[in-house]
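name: query_chain
kind: protein
chains: 1
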Amino acid sequence: MNDIIAEFKQYLLNTKNYSIHTADAYEHDIVDFMFFYCRFNGNPPQIQDIANIDTLGFRSWLADRARRELSHKSTARALSSLRTFYKYLGKYKDIHNDAINLISSPKIPRKLSKAIETTDVENMHNAIKAIDNNEPWIMARDWALVVLIFGCGLRISEALSLTNKDITNNPESLRIVGKGNKERIVPVLLAVNTALDKYVKIRPFGHGMEDPVFRSVRGLPMSSRMAEKVIEKVRKYLQLPDYVTPHALRHTFATALLAGGADLRSLQELLGHASLSTTQLYTKVNMAEIMSAYNHAHPLAKADNE
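structure:
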C-alpha cells in the first residue's frame, strides 16, 4: 500500500502539477485513513480491502476524526483527498469503490474576512519608516510589499514569486501565475511602480533578471513567513486588530473595488478565483457595510430604534 500511495503522490506532482505542500497534505490525509483502517479492521489494509470498504468504514473514520477534535475544515479536506485517491485508483489501478461517493463532507461555516481601514493602510507607511529607520532598503522593501499586495490584490506567494524581469520598465500590468498554475493579468498602479522602483534602486543584492524581487536581510529569496512578520511588526506598532494580515490587504483590495462598482466577474479575474462563489463572499461583506450605513443614516432605521 505504501508503494501505491507513493505513486499517487508522484501523480499529483507530475501529472496534476500540484505543489509539494499540497501533495504532502494529500499524502498525510490518506496515511491518516490507512492508520485508522488498521485499527478499525485489525490488520493493515490490502488492495482488495480498499476496494471493499463500505460506508460504515468511511463514516467511522470521520467519527474518529471528530473524537480527535480535528476541525470540520481539516476533515473536509481529508475526505476530498481520499476521494481524489480513489479516482486515481479507478483510473490507473482498476480499483473501484462507489461507497466513498455516498459520504457527505462536514459543513464548514464560511467566515467573512475583515477589510482593513484605508487610514490604517496609509498609517502603515509611517509605521514602516519608524520600525526600519536604520535600514533604508528594508524600509523600502516592506512598503513596496504592502503596496503591491494592497494595490494589485495578490496573494503572498504571488507577490514573492515575482522576478526582476516581471517588473522591469514599470509595467502597466503583471502576468501572475496563481493557484493551480492559473494565469491572470492584473493592472499596476503608479503608486505600486513607484514603491517598487525605490526599493529596487537601493536593494544591495539580487539584481539578476531572473532573481526574485523581494530579498531577505541576508540576500536570500524572501519567504512567506518573513512577509507575514513584516505585517505583524506593523500591526503591533500601530496596535491594530489581529485580523490585519497580508491576506487582509488582498481582501481590502477586493472590497474597495466592489464598493467602487466593479462587477463580480471582473473581480474574480483580478483575484484569480477559480470559482465565482468564492468571489461572491465579498458581496456579503459589502452588504454588511451597506446595512451598517443604513442603520446609522436612514430615517426609518432611526425610527425603528426609537
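note: The chain has two domains: 2-102, 118-293.
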